[in-house]
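Purpose: get a first structural picture of the assembly so the mutagenesis plan has something to point at.
Setup: four entries, given in the order below. No constraints added.
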Amino acid sequence: MEEKKITIFDVAARAGVSKGTVDRVLHNRGEVSRKSAEKVRKAIEELNYEPNLYASLLATKKSRMIACLLPEPEAGEYWEKVRNGFLAGGAEVAGLNIVTRLFSYDQYDPSSFDRACENLLAAAPAGVVLPPLFKNGTMSLASKLKAMDIPYVYVDTKLEDGDYFAYFGMPMYQSGYLCAALLTERLEPEEVKDVVVVRIIRDKSRQSDPTVSRREGFTDYILDHFPDCSISNIFIDPSRPESISKALKELTPERKLVVMFNSRIHLIADFLRRNPSPGRRVIGFDNLDRNMDALRDGLVTLLIAQHTERQSHNAVLTLSDYILVGKKPLNRDNYVHMDILSRLNIDNY
Amino acid sequence: MEEKKITIFDVAARAGVSKGTVDRVLHNRGEVSRKSAEKVRKAIEELNYEPNLYASLLATKKSRMIACLLPEPEAGEYWEKVRNGFLAGGAEVAGLNIVTRLFSYDQYDPSSFDRACENLLAAAPAGVVLPPLFKNGTMSLASKLKAMDIPYVYVDTKLEDGDYFAYFGMPMYQSGYLCAALLTERLEPEEVKDVVVVRIIRDKSRQSDPTVSRREGFTDYILDHFPDCSISNIFIDPSRPESISKALKELTPERKLVVMFNSRIHLIADFLRRNPSPGRRVIGFDNLDRNMDALRDGLVTLLIAQHTERQSHNAVLTLSDYILVGKKPLNRDNYVHMDILSRLNIDNY
DNA sequence: CGAAAAATCGTGCCCGTTCACGGAAATTCC
DNA sequence: GGAATTTCCGTGAACGGGCACGATTTTTCG
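Result (structure tokens, whole complex):
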């Protein structure tokens, strides 16, 4: 039971070399003759030696780096929360010989994403955290990371590339499903003839829409439960605020059910304020400050939210665990809880 | 960005004492004058010093102990898997200055449970893993552990005492719900008039039945979907095998729907073999070898299983994380996936 | 006041690795 | 064969903190 710990010295003695040599073969950084390398390997084998993690961690000089690839967040935007979580996680693992670094890009400019990827790769991180915002760019990055044996963790949404190390985020499909259920709760079929989805015009560059599967979940629920319901889209362009109200003209007062699948429900808050419609139900996602304001003001009925910061926070912790001691996460896919926020439970969220 | 790490020496210098003194106040083990203790605390504060975890772990002599309180498992029994997981976890954290110890008791004898608790407390563990088999005994142990600030992790089932450190197990209610759904899948209401639940006679000593909420989930589903269905119980006594077939006389061939909520569906396998009934559906829980055999033989239709070992395994890892570096688990309640096993997918589970 | 006891405190070794440095051995080359 | 390389390998100083031991200071008390 009480087995003596075997150290690098024991191995060295057994192999008839010095601890320096053992260390060299352990980290196979050369400068060892074939013969003694063999002897050392044999000794390690026979003694069943495992290096002491703590000693190793204490002595090691180089600090590993965890990179985070994120859009440059505008103030109050969704990505700001993601970044905050990442920074918080970074603070937690600082002092463990782990540094964290942000690589940001312009979310409307795919070429800036590619440049950020290059920088990131050049910096040789030991692990990467990223939301797969641009599909192609992400895929290309992912394959390079895989080749270099660098683990990467998706947050927010995930690509099904089979090689990601872990995922932290909302179950997107279910969140859409939930959204539909909440939107139509206790409504009669004749009250659910028409649903308006407000969407963002994206320029072509953005090859992937992270909310597609959320939309699918939503649509599936509606089709299942209200086959006669039509789902129509209104597109708005956030870069031209003055155009928004024009586009929303279509949102006439008798259209009662409104949703947005991204985090920007606050964009239509102004319109809703100026065009009230009793009994209207508006559901959005994510607890951005401005969304919360709209919720408080009664412009938005419900928000489906998550503790966004925790995703990237946990992503960092998971990676650092793996980098330091090789520990894999309990689950590869980690779904956060979908919180339902209304005016009633919005306080101290 | 590149902040110099502050060590215990820096603190000592700043406070005008030696590192020995700093160390003493850090672990407040006395022998320090009020005055210099104050100076040291101030220095720590000002320098924002945090001890280097690795150095500390490397230097520290005493090894912490994680205890596991388990019923003495009979071969092939459910608890054997739990124990194996615990041992596996123990092996993983051995060499991290963490030892694991089993405290076992007779699951039919509450006084042996209490004795085991005493032994456990006397051994001063740094963390405890346990299934809350005896409710009263567990509650009393839990309150003592809380008072001593020793974290404990429930596996298998949990008590809602609000103070447990984490829980690893199946979502019990849902598992019952799932069980009912599977049992009645694609059956017409007139086919679901009668469900038989086979249960174990427990002597009074066993104050808690871990499967109650599973039974609730089951009942709720049935009541919801088949309000006309009656649920009847048959009690068997595993300590008197010869009595089992007598009790099961009531299970006549025309009664097609049979479930057991504990892990012992194998107990009725013999009876089912001798009294076949075409179209009968039998659902049990947990992948015990003998259950798997019954599944393979077609006596049991489905098993709802989980990777039992992983519960206790993860419990150990979680505790060791906390003990060593103070890290809390991502989620307090960790539900394992409910695997549905049939003859078709039983291989290499 | 001075010795004994008690309260404080400093010193130095240890934990098991990593890694730079320089020396020894083997190889190459003239 | 001897000098110049090249290849290999041993040494010892970190790394930052725990803790035993003994030294120093303060307190107690006759």
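Residues 5, 7-9, 19-20, 23, 26-27, 33, 51-52, 54-61 of chain A lie near DNA strand C (CB under 10 Å from a C1').
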